[in-house]
């Protein structure tokens, strides 16, 4: 893997961090500052209104002395961290919490204009040049008998608001850094549960792509990654198995073709160079003929198998009487049976039994099974072919009392070219393809075939077929 996925994820992570920082640095400070100013101005204005309606009004009504008001406002000013002033409409300073009361030296605010705040209730400037630096100022009128007597002004140094803003921003930056670090956990999870397994899967895929189908790997997880790995590994093992089968198949075919060809070549050469005298030619030509017949049989079987596999078998489904097919197939073995003194006993339920299947293919199945039964039976024995009916199925059984099949071979006999050791002596012409063709045909009908066998006692092959529904109704 070119590490791209990981890089992309890392990049996304970095972009997330940088964007977070940029947004925090550009928007958040102004927003925080704005919020802080509005909040402070709000509370200062409430205070100013309160003072205007209480202490200041009492002062103008001469209910309370200037000193007493100053004392009260001094405390309040410390509490509010600001400067409180009472100013006459003309701009004359009556009281300033930052200055002692000095009646001799009047302080006049030049060009004092209470409408300086405009439509808002606060203003940020140096308050008619009264302060050297910027202040947040609010002004509340002191009214008495519907007349404006003066103003309460409260000023807060913008430096202190800036300070609060900065400490709030520091908290935000720390939160962002913590968030960024915490999101590292996602990166770690991604690496551990997605990236690393994916790298192993990719490596395995590369191995399979280069033909190393036997490369084994597994992931210890039960999530989608684990499932993907299991599927991939299963797929590879299946391909490997089919490759092995293919090789075995070719090896078997070559072997089965080579032996008759070698013997044909041997006999023909011997006849040509005179090793076999002309009077014996007929005998050996018959052997050669036999071998060519075996080759033809082998070729036909291979072609049939190939057709069955590639086309998925095109079946010519009809309704036919299975009993009739059994009778005619059994009859075709009369000659062979006579030679071995073997009797075929037919135990057929009902006179006619209609099934829905491909007649010629089922005939081939019966032919293979009866042929095997005869081949592997002893002289003077009986082969039973029986039909039974159960539910909607017809079961056909071909039973012999021959050599039987060893337990360990029972699964293998359905494989192409498989011949059990027991049978080799008995059947030199066998190709080992008959049963695999038989199985393919029965499976293509969506039916089943089974074998029960005991070595030395005999074998029974049973397969099922669907009973014809149409002919049922007629019955
Ligand atoms: P073949 O053409 O060699 O008979 P099959 O595929 O029909 O090939 O059978 C495969 C093997 O299964 C045979 O070689 C034999 O070992 C075993 N087999 C099949 N039918 C019987 C049977 N009725 N009795 C004993 N062995 C059998």
Task: Explain this structure.
The protein is an alpha+beta fold and 475 residues long. It has 3 domains: 4-163, Beta-Lactamase, CATH 3.30.450; 224-309, Helix Hairpins (Orthogonal Bundle), CATH 1.10.287.130; 317-474, Histidine kinase-like ATPase, C-terminal domain (Heat Shock Protein 90, 2-Layer Sandwich), CATH 3.30.565.10. Helices cover 55% and strands 17% of the residues. The chain is built from 12 helices and 12 strands. It has helices at 4-60, 66-80, 158-182, 184-209, 224-272, 281-311, 322-331, 334-340, 359-375, 421-426, 434-444, 469-474; strands at 83-87, 93-96, 123-125, 135-144, 147-157, 317-321, 343-348, 354-358, 382-390, 393-399, 449-454, 458-466. A 5-stranded antiparallel β-sheet has the order 2-1-5-4-3. The protein has a 5-stranded mixed β-sheet with strand order 7-9-10-12-11. Strand 11 (449-454) and strand 12 (458-466) form a beta hairpin. Helix 5 (224-272) runs antiparallel to helix 6 and helix 6 runs parallel beside helix 11 (434-444). The mean pLDDT is 89. Bound molecules: adenosine-5'-diphosphate (ADP). Adenosine-5'-diphosphate is lined by residues 368, 372-373, 376, 400, 402-405, 413, 418-420, 423, 427, 430-436, 459.
